[in-house]
Every structure is written in structure tokens, then in C-alpha cells.
Amino acid sequence: MNDNLYKKAGGTILSQRELEAQALVHMAAKINAIKENWDEKKDTLEDVLNMNRKLWIIFASNLAEPDNPLPLDLKKNVGALALFIFKHTLNVISEPRPEALDTLININMQLAKGLATKVPDADADAEAKETQAPVAPQNMKPMDISL
To answer: What string of DSSP letters covers the chain?
Structure first.
């Protein structure tokens, strides 16, 4: 696809992280709409939860890809979250309650927030650290080092 044509048409090219964040926010919004309008929308619960589960299947399957750049510990954390999502989804489908949706909404939103956070370029970050004076955290108290 020609990126210039797409830009001329007014579109924006999103990064993989931005696409994933948007997908998570979209699913969280769909789940929240059911929670907020439980009586009118609870019959759509299983379909929406299955869509959310499919999104998490994509995340989980991408973890095993050889070219996945995530550090191993982050892969393990996302994998564990995916397993939790799968189990919780089955529990919610078997015993539907609007308050049980909060967990899925919160996890999706928190991961989307993390994905939307800009990751600094490693070279630019190292250069910035070299030119910046260290700053102590505000809650840090001076140590008494007198002998």
C-alpha cells in the first residue's frame, strides 16, 4: 500500500502498539456498555466476551513468535494475563453478573494505557541521561553519613 496516498486521504498510520491499544479500548467500551445497560444488553454478553477473548488469543499467540521483541519476563506476564482473561471470561459466561465485567474492563484499559505510553528511543534515552543531572525522588530523605 502506498503510504503517501493514505496520508493524502487524511488517514493516520498507526503503530502496532497504537492499534493494539485501540483494540483493547474498543473492547473495554463494548463490555462497559453491557455493564451499564445490563437489562437491555445482557443477551449480547457472550458474543462481546468472545470477541474480547479472540483479541487476547491474538496477543497470546504473538508472544510465541520468534521475532517478538518483548523481553521474556514481559512475555510471561502478558501470557499469564491472557490465561486469566480466558478463565475469567468462562466464569462470567457461566455466571453472568454486571460487576464481574469490571475486571475485564480494567485489565483491557490498563494494558491499553501501557501500550499507549511512548517508548523512548534507546539511543536518545542514553544521550539524554548523559546530559541530565540526576534528580532525587521527592520523597527521598537525606541520609546522615557522618562518622
So the answer is: --HHHHHHTT--PPPHHHHHHHHHHHHHHHHHHHHHTHHHHGGGHHHHHHHHHHHHHHHHHHHT-TT--S-HHHHHHHHHHHHHHHHHHHHHHHS--GGGHHHHHHHHHHHHHHHHSPPPPHHHHHHHHHHS-----TTPPPP----
Domain of 105: which CATH number? 1.20.120.340
Dist. CA 143–CA 62, nearest whole Å:
47
In-domain check, residue 87: yes
Model confidence pLDDT, tens digit, residues 8-40: 555 677 788 899 999 999 999 999 999 999 999
- Give residues with Cβ within 8 angstroms of 49, minimum separation 6: 31, 89, 92, 93, 104
Neighbours of 13 (CB within 10 A): 10
Q: State the total domains in the chain.
A: 1
What pLDDT does 142 receive? 42
φ and ψ at 77, to 5 degrees?
A: -65, -45
Domain encompassing residue 61: 13-130
Measured from the Cβ of residue 68, the count of other Cβ atoms closer than 10 Å reads 12
